[in-house]
């Protein structure tokens, strides 16, 4: 995609990651031991499905929650990026210096990644796409991933067709009746998202569910096709 085709997108939720919120984010996920292990297992299976890529961009990297897992391959080239400089700073301070040293850190948006075309084998994007409510914005982000990845993308989002999604729909309906605002987290129908992936130039290699038929989290593995 050339510069004229790019559409700059800024979503308000991304501004909430201040210094204090970033520290709270680190503490919250550092305490969720069981769910964290399960999410790491889901991500590991997705990376295996992607062919154990030799170079990975973790975006958004947050406070480096997946860095130890990504660095298990000593030969893997590692990059990490986040829109929030505060998140990157918390990662620098809380993670082992030897681990931090494995990563090239970038501050940028997922809609405008400050890397050339075909920079990495795989873009690893966990806990971002479920914040993107508009189809056009999801496609714009996927197209930017297509530009920067040489081969694959691993990403997670909330999908329908499970018990938690049914519960979430009921909660959203009640929230709308009370006149409350959205919390900027969205369920995307599986068929719709897979069509958006194809629209952006990917084929769906497969997926890994957090807990099938129960939880909303699904990690997709996408492979780049030529546009």
Automatic annotation (TrEMBL):
Entry annotated with the keyword Methyltransferase: yes
A GO biological process held by the record: methylation
Methyltransferase domain location: 56-150
GO molecular function, one term: methyltransferase activity
A Pfam family hit: Methyltransf_25
Keyword NAD annotated: no
InterPro entries linked to this entry: Methyltransf_25, SAM-dependent_MTases_sf
Record key words, sorted: Methyltransferase, Transferase
Protein name as it appears in the record: Methyltransferase domain-containing protein
Species of the source: Candidatus Accumulibacter proximus
């Amino acid at each position: 995609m050339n510069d004229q085709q790019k559409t700059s997108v800024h979503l308000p939720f991304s501004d909430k990651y201040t210094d204090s919120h970033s520290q709270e984010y680190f503490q919250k996920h550092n305490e969720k031991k069981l769910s964290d292990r399960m999410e790491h297992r889901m991500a590991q299976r997705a990376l295996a499905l992607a062919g154990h890529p030799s170079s990975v961009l973790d975006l958004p990297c947050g406070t480096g929650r997946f860095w130890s897992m990504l660095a298990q391959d000593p030969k893997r080239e590692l990059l990490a990026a986040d829109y929030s400089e505060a998140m990157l700073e918390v990662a620098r301070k809380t993670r082992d210096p030897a681990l931090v040293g494995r990563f090239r850190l970038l501050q940028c948006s997922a809609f405008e990644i400050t890397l050339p075309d075909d920079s990495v084998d795989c873009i690893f994007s966990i806990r971002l796409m479920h914040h993107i409510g508009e189809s056009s914005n999801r496609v714009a982000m996927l197209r930017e991933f297509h530009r920067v990845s040489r081969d694959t993308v691993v990403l997670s989002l909330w999908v329908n067709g499970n018990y938690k999604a049914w519960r979430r729909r009921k909660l959203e309906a009640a929230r709308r009746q009370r006149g409350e605002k959205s919390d900027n987290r969205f369920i995307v129908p599986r068929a719709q998202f897979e069509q958006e992936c194809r629209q952006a130039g990917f084929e769906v290699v497969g997926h890994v569910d957090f807990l099938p038929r129960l939880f909303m989290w699904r990690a997709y593995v996408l492979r780049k096709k030529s546009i």
